[in-house]
Specification:
Strand content: 15-25%
Distance between the termini: 34 Å
Bound molecules: iron/sulfur cluster
Number of strands: 4
Shape: globular
Radius of gyration: 15 Å
Order of helices and strands: EEEEHHH
Number of helices: 3
Mean pLDDT: 85
């Protein structure tokens, strides 16, 4: 599920490409995706923050979305479409409307 990146590092298979797609990513980018190993994802993945999920803009998020032709996230994306965050201790609060 990982591949060598240089002598001392490894990366998730599929992420070390010009047009990356992680082997652990399920779903259709731009519609609905999820990480199949979320609880065991790498430190690199844990360090990545989606723009405004913490109230702040994150350039890496914008660049990743742009590679797939997706617009930058905005604060309104969270207000209008709450996201289920597995790390959140109050899952009912962030549960999307049915
Ligand atoms: S969070 Fe999951 S799907 Fe995304 S890059 Fe990391 S391992 Fe892959």
């Amino acid at each position: 599920m990982t591949e060598d990146v240089g002598t001392h590092y490894r990366a998730m298979a599929g992420t070390n490409k010009t047009h990356p797609r992680c082997i652990a990513l399920n779903g259709i980018i731009g519609h609905a995706v999820s990480c199949s190993i979320y609880e065991n994802r790498s430190s690199t993945c844990r360090a990545f923050t989606a723009s405004y999920s913490d109230g702040e803009y994150h350039e890496d998020c914008a660049k990743a979305r742009a590679r797939y032709g997706l617009p930058e996230l905005t604060p309104e994306d969270y207000r209008d479409n709450p996201i289920v965050n597995p790390d959140d201790n109050e899952p009912e609060k962030n549960k999307p409307a049915a």
